[in-house]
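for the record, two folds in this file. i put them one after another cuz i was lazy. first one right below, seq on top, structure tokens after. the second one comes after a little note so u can tell where it starts
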Amino acid sequence: MTDPIADYLTRLRNAISAGHRVVEIPSSKIKQEITKVLFDKGYILNYKFVDLDEHRSIIKIALKYDLQTKSNAIRKLQRVSRPGLRKYAGYKDIPRVLNGLGIAILSTSRGVMSDKEAREMKVGGEVLCYVY
């Protein structure tokens, strides 16, 4: 697999469009950190890291839906930096998603974090994706 983060986002997108409550995704450290950011910002209901054996593990993600409108908390997931064209931003140049209503997830020297946390810590990095 060339781009595991794009695969992660595509699996989430497909589960949302199909109306699934839970999605299972092969695990890696970067995917676990992105999942934690999505949970902290309120885009997913819950998550669980499950070890299948000593070499394989999965992430179970419970998606968040509005009870009245049956719409998902995540409207759009967009991959920004990709293996063919990496996108980096300094802390002053971190893009605002939907004028602050969405988040950009960054991979920085201090770990994976949202755009607001990166601005507060004054650290830049690779812009992985936009979520809104």
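(here's the note) second protein begins now
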Amino acid sequence: MLRKVRVILGATVFLLITLLFLDFTGTMHRWFSWLAKIQFVPAVLALNFVVVAVLLLVTWFFGRVYCSIICPMGVFQDVVEWLHNRRKKNRYTYSKGMSWLRYTLLVLWLAAFVMGVGAFVALLAPYSSYGRIAANLFQPVWEMGNNALAYLCERIDSYAFYSTDVWIRSMPTFVIATVTFVIVFVLAWRNGRTYCNTICPVGTLLSFVSRFSLFKVRFDADKCRSCSLCSKNCKASCIDFKTHTVDYSRCVTCGNCISNCKFGALSYSLSRKSSDSRSSRDSRPSSNPSPSIDSSKRTFLASSVMVTTAILAQEKKKVDGGLAKIEGKTVPQRHTPLTPPGSLSAQNMARRCTGCQLCVSECPNNVLRPSTDLLKLMQPTMSYERGYCRPECTRCSKVCPTGAIQPIRHEQKASLQIGHAVWIKKNCIPLTDGVECGNCARHCPAGAIEMVPSNPNDEESPYVPAINEARCIGCGACEHLCPARPLSAIIVEGHEVHREI
């Protein structure tokens, strides 16, 4: 029963969290965004002491069930382990924990946490690591499937689906996600929970509490026949059947050992049994029954497993009237990067963001993408080549689980200044091509741009934009809609600290 409950809960949470990263419509977040906020590291960064306290209490009562049920990276390893077990069963053996490596990585991770080295913190945080895998590897496959359905529906005059762009938002982050996926997959395929019990700092932190958990997997030495099935099915490699001991710092309370024990020698209980003592082990009769027992009768919950591929859909060519291809825009060099509305400041973003990519995958305007700056690697930054930050959209602020992007209201965003537009004279079409434009002024939602004569003394001179920086909110509509190619005649410079105007 323990294993069945764990599998059902873990599979449900894993599927819903994965859908949070795959769903680009925002539907899932209306109901299940709280699943991202009960992850350990996001709760700590968001200063959500209630969630942190509950997770620690649950660990103290039941052991590391967080790793088996709530953490998506932990359940992902279970999915890989389940796939391998269909080919080869009873494949694990007891091994001593690599404490020196676990604690070294934990100390380095905590030091990076305190010093604000966000890239290293994000690299090892389990929830963020899985988020990058889901956003960079799984979501493109999901979107290509959606685009295929949209194409088929269009053929029958149905608009139940709509197509979306499939593109790599940041090559460094894509590479990191791919490497993480390969490492975790290989470790889980070969040795089960090696990542959890060797690399993951959250698992190491929780192990200090799980040592003293009230409910534990306990041996009854009188019933044990040393068949070794418990050790052979322990994916954490923490059960030594020879000495009847369990390393509770590594045990993730999966229940595999109990469901595979044919003699009832293992139980998940509160009380300590006298059979844990050495004397009872010495007094038991020597026997070595190891009948051929079919342990394949196990209950599995069907899980949705998505195998990633690096093949991305080719972006559709944009054409002007079906005759000429429109040249794409080049990312400008900004002196100050743009951070999302609600992030308060660049410092707040750098201190609290773990680069989980939830906001990036959720952005409907293709504005957010992971930073390539080494000190802010994988944290979201803004650019306007594919869209602009619409004043009515606050989706990224609603999904951020760490508090790096604070929730904001629609009316608040319309007056929130995250940057200001800067006119680049040499790129402006009225001056370079001698034609009228005014796109930036027409589409500015804040009314911060007006067209004025380029020569104040000549009303017949080409009209160029004049920017009122006090009214500009930095939404990027002017930059995105500027027809100048490959560089816009207006770019938006970010502000280190956001302010309301």
